[in-house]
Design a protein that fits this description.
Strand order of the largest sheet of chain B: 11-10-12-9-13
Oligomer: heterodimer
Structural class of chain A: mainly alpha
Shape of chain B: elongated
CATH class of chain A: Mainly Alpha
Distance between the termini of chain B: 51 Å
Shape of chain A: globular
CATH architecture of chain A: Orthogonal Bundle
Largest sheet of chain A: 2 strands, antiparallel
CATH topology of chain A: MetI-like fold
Radius of gyration of chain B: 22 Å
Helix content of chain A: over 70%
Strand order of the largest sheet of chain A: 1-2
Structural class of chain B: alpha/beta
Largest sheet of chain B: 5 strands, mixed
Strand content of chain A: under 5%
CATH class of the largest domain in chain B: Alpha Beta
Helix content of chain B: 25-40%
CATH topology of the largest domain in chain B: D-Maltodextrin-Binding Protein, domain 2
Number of strands of chain A: 2
CATH superfamily of chain A: MetI-like
Order of helices and strands of chain A: HHHHHEEHHHHH
Amino acid sequence: MHLMNFWLEPRYLGWLAHGFLITLILSACVSVCATLLGFGLAMARIAQHRAVATAAKLYVLVFRNSPLLVQLLFWYFGAAMLLPSAWMTWLNTPHVLSAGPFALHWPSFELFAGWLGLTCYSTAFIAEEFRAGIRGVGIAQYQASAALGMTRYATLRHVVLPQAVRIATPPLAGQYMNIVKNSSLTMAIGVAELSYASRQVDTESFRTFQAFGTATVLYVGTVALIETALVIWQHTGVRALQRGRA
Amino acid sequence: MNLRVLGAVIAGSLFVMSAAAHADRLDDIKKAGVLRVAAFDSNPPFGFVDPKSNQIVGLDVDYARALATRLGVKLEIQPTNPANRIAFLKSGKVDLVFANFTITDDRKKEVDFSTPYFASGTQFIAKKGTLTSPQQLNGLRIGADKGTTNEQQVRAQFPSATIIAYDDTPFAFAALRTGNVQAITQDGPKLVALLAKVPDKANYEIPPFTISNDYEGVGVPKGETRLLNVVNDTLKDLEAKGTAGTIYDTWFGPKSAAPLPRLFRIGDPQKS
């Protein structure tokens, strides 16, 4: 018997590959968006404007203190209830935006809700990592900048943030790993990602070990890749940053 | 010539003797005046204990009673669970099984089955008027329960349909209500039970078609040909006289708690 057939039939490997692709796309989109939003949220939390800082604090409180699964179910089932039915029809029909040979497919509502839920959740955590990085910069740095006559914005931009980002990077990498693993929860709202695909392969092929084994290896591999990227960045990126800017 | 006649006589008498040696169950039933039937006691509406009368009632029981009436004997119900059905028949504890007994090739090795008197299959719930024929399924988003045969059947028969699998049927129904899927799939009787509990059930319907079929028949002890024939003839006659339809309507008719269109009549050709 062919080795691949002994493990899983090509059809099932195809399902797993497709699921893995969805996991990667979802995780990448969430990571990018949550990083941008998280940075903004961290800025809002240290803002001098009281109302802005309080609103940011409230956001973190809500999204960090409730389970991700409940949040996903809320976006998919709850928020969908509030939208007009015409919107839901539009969101659930396939749309294609084509430009020459490239066609951009509007994602399924499941993927959209999964992306929204994961982004809102991860933003709170990433914002807190940024804030921790900013707080990790010594008070003397602020005082020295003030002594040099730098404005608050210039201090932040040229003195505090370069150091804060460096401090925050290892925990941020941890958050990206969490995003990859948390994306598996979106199977509850029908996102056909890796965990969903492995469960489907299990019920159709009855090869439980192979199905979940393959999924586990792919998850571990992805997280290991993020870890490797962190190590490489710490060895090259930090030095380049120090030479170039600081 | 003589030898051949003798052979025929011997063969014939052997046949008669063997028939006599095997006490015929149909004669036993008539002699005892009692038909012993195994039925479910907790599977509404097929067989369950009626809280008012404390008696086992249901669709299966009604068919069994109609048969007993035709035979002119009393009906005696033996409560059973799915696992005991074959054992009850083989040990001779009951004469027949009327317990939503799906006909399968494996079971046919152990017991005989009558012609089917009930059929269930993979069906759908959709918003009223949106789903009328199976061909439409190819263009729809369909909610299913993870790991069910329903999900696999839809995927195999309608490759262009988008299937979203949820953890259980209530989740799938929630997705239908919010408009994330246009139809959900499960076994017909289960969909009926689900729909019966929904507050806005007037907005939904179960379109009158199935994409797969399970057939339920009466379990008869192996080799009791005369009894099997009587059961088959009686079932066909119940259909011809309209009694079968009346019994169905009692439990699944438009005025019942769980209306399910009657897609299969006794004697209809079986679809796979």
